[in-house]
Amino acid sequence: MLSESPTLAMSARAKELKAQGKAVLDFSAGEPDFRPPAAVTAAVTEYLQTRPVHYAPVPGMPALRDAAAAEFARYHGRAITRGEILVSCGAKHSLANLFMVTLSPGDEVVIPAPYWVSYADMVRLGDGVPVIVPTRREDGWRLQPDALAAALTERTRFIILGNPTNPTGAGYPAGLLRQLGEVMARVAPRCWLLVDDIYRRLVYGGFEHVSAFATLADVTDQIVIADGVSKSYSMTGYRIGFLLAPANVVAAASRLQGHVTSGAATPSQIAALAALTDPSCEAAVRDMHAAFTRRREFVLAGLQALPGLDVVAPDGAFYLFCDVSRHLGPGTQFADDIAFATWLLEQKLVGTVPGTAFGAPGHLRLSYAAADESLRDGLQRLGEALAGLPPPRDA
């Protein structure tokens, strides 16, 4: 049975409370709070005002597939053709398509935890078996080579790496990525590496995102990339994602998509095309990145100053993943992180997501994709909430 997305559920409850007139500060949503670049809005407006809106080709408009191929060729340093690109209704759709056309019953997919909430359920949709591999805070929440080697079997079909990942913001530097690739080639040479690059342009603190293709030259024919415009261009509602995969995989996923959704919405594809091709969009991306950089530093410092919280500085995305376990269990007010997050939302009007949703009980995820004033007020409200609790347990 598929579970409800906990992030969407918490966000929906926060919206319900806001609709009731409650002054909710919601840090649960995984989407930028900025408008898309002006050129994106202008392109969609011009299109809608001057022509009818028809179905788009199932795998995506040729111009958009070509633009995505050009962008990925530039970034990954290799030739990429239109046939290797599938345009879907968001990167989530891209991943679901991939698993449904590549997995056979019993195929295993290695997923490092904490993990994005939908990975495991999408694997199950494809009749696969999620193999959850815990990571450690002291390792920066990054999968380590020995843990990967222990998880691989002859049934392993994919290894998933978010780079950076949701919810921790952990990224994979070139050296570690290369070590993981060597383990994959040695222990499970038939499996594929799936890299979720949706946050690749949102990295901070000197972390350098590296292309899996450029880093793992020996296994380039076994790498699949999920990407899109949702996060980097603040276009979550447009629902455009890209799958970069071998042409035969893209063709199979396109056939599936043709029976499930058909092509992604035509106006959304026009918007994505503008994002990838209009040079003016880069200034908007830089401005958003600068704002996220500032917010990251502010919220990180604020959380580190609060009693009983432990948080690792993220390499990217726009989340902070807090260990709140000292406020849970015997002698505290809360049995678990779900109870804590529920109390924060219902009683203190602060929206977060419990770590259990990401395979990491005892944690909370907070998004800093919110206005500066909201972040200031949120830290103050969180501090007041913690001050009213029993002292945190000893570490």
TrEMBL record:
One Pfam assignment: Aminotran_1_2
Keywords: Aminotransferase, Pyridoxal phosphate, Transferase
InterPro entries for the chain: Aminotransferase_I/II_large, AspAT/PAT-like, NHTrfase_class1_PyrdxlP-BS, PyrdxlP-dep_Trfase, PyrdxlP-dep_Trfase_major, PyrdxlP-dep_Trfase_small
CDD domains (UniProt xref): AAT_like
Domain Aminotransferase class I/classII large: 24-374
EC numbers for this chain: 2.6.1.-
Keyword Disulfide bond annotated: no
GO molecular function annotations of the record: transaminase activity
Cofactor(s) needed by this chain: pyridoxal 5'-phosphate
Family of the protein in this entry: Belongs to the class-I pyridoxal-phosphate-dependent aminotransferase family.
Name of this chain's protein: Aminotransferase
Organism per entry: Nannocystis pusilla
